[in-house]
## 1
Amino acid sequence: MTKIEYTARCHCGKVQFSFRSKEITKGLRCDCSICIRKGAVMSLKYIPAEDFTPIKNMNDLTDYRWNDRVVNHLFCKTCGIYPYHGDEEYGYRVNLGCVDQINPLSLEITVYDGKSMPISKA
Ligand SMILES: [Zn+2]
């Protein structure tokens, strides 16, 4: 399966990254307590770390942990945009609104029932 190289950035451009994935035609939204507030359309799958490349200085990100403190919710320190979350072990779930080649509102959206998860860590 051919993979596409996607490029992405936060709003101010201090956080930039790229990743390889087969063509993205679907997005994910979640109704857990943090996602419902962010409102982002995310990648359906986690992008494996070997396919994920940070381009700009990751010190421009800050991380917000809550509840079980497992998922690191990342935000640009300057513009406040959430570009992705995850880590090297689990891979990265990407905010598709940050991706240059994608219009997230044109994708088929799956809604994940994060609100019903006992620790709501989706
Ligand atoms: Zn920014």
## 2
Amino acid sequence: MSRPVLRTPLCDLLGIEYPVILAGMGPVAGGLTGPVATAPLAAAVSNAGGLGVIGGAGFSPDTLREEIAKVRSLTDKPFGVDLLLPSNYMGGAASGEMPRDPRELIPAETTAALKKMATDLGIDWKEAPARPQPAPRRTGGGMSDEQMEVVIEEKIAVFASGLGNPAQWVPRLKANGTKIISLVGNVKNAKRVRDAGADVVVAQGTEAGGHTGRIATLALVPQVIDAIAPTPVVAAGGIADGRGLAAALAMGAIGVWCGTAFLVSDEANQPETQKQRILAATDEDTRVTRLYSGKTMRNITNPLIEAWDASGIAALPMGLQGLLIQDLVYSCRQAGREDLLMNAAGQISGLLTESRPAAAILHDMVNGAADILARKLPATITAAPESAA
Ligand SMILES: Cc1cc2nc3c(=O)[nH]c(=O)nc-3n(C[C@H](O)[C@H](O)[C@H](O)COP(=O)(O)O)c2cc1C
């Protein structure tokens, strides 16, 4: 059987066969198992004709370098690295005002409220074993300075910034020939990363799993396209099959960036219980919460998220919120309540019913879109634009 054909300008720009990018996905499940998009998944997507992207956010610089080497041992195709470059980390610790122990920044009443929430859910409060303090951050992006040095030294084909603005890194990335992709959730940030030098802007709708904004994909994509033309736009959020891919191309996006679709792939580094919860989820089973990271994140819902949201407790900035919930996450694990841990996933979870190899997911998406665009639409829709005369 012949391979399906589906080419857009994204294929030429990134040197790939199909206009589908694996979203760079970092850790879930309280960081228990590391990032979701590791070498096997990234390489599988690249080998199948898409662009695999390592979710580098949860990797130390050394482990990131090892992961890059692993992908290179599994594929000779282009691949990318995604990192988070948040501007506000540990409540502004970027300015160098971070106390020696950032836990001092956590209000005692917030911890007390969290303990009560755990007790109400029948969880015994246990203190997590002491963990090394996060190193002070020079750009406010956590380890991002050191991680970015790895991306630059390794001359990665594609760099994706999941949060924040890559501006300060653009000259060195471009000098390496690295293509820069930046994720945004609104027009304002699309213009900002375009001005910074992004080669491709991913417009990510609120449907998306993980950190997400407020605007839906169908409304966001055309507005971003118009705002930053001629910079190319890739659509994200709620796209998991040929229908979503065809719709994104019809809107004028040159490709798609997909997370949830690949979360349930065989190669995803995601605990089996978490995959099963996504496969069992309906369209209504996700919630946006600040519980796990301090930023708005779409997750498969659970009683802890519901209790947190009902409590009205104000979330702390990214980084501090992670420290705040460290003991809570540990207590949930000790109580065998993995169902209460972070399980980031998008609204399209309800469409997913089986775990499959990433190559099969990619193939069906591309083949489905090609079928819609080349056969189904012309066969079922009669259309002609007004003539110029
Ligand atoms: C489990 C999970 C982890 C994620 N981690 C990251 C990350 O580390 N960096 C990033 O840029 N985006 C991350 N995202 C968001 C994705 O990049 C992507 O924008 C989103 O999954 C697209 O929407 P979809 O899930 O509907 O396909 C994550 C998403 C999920 C589901």
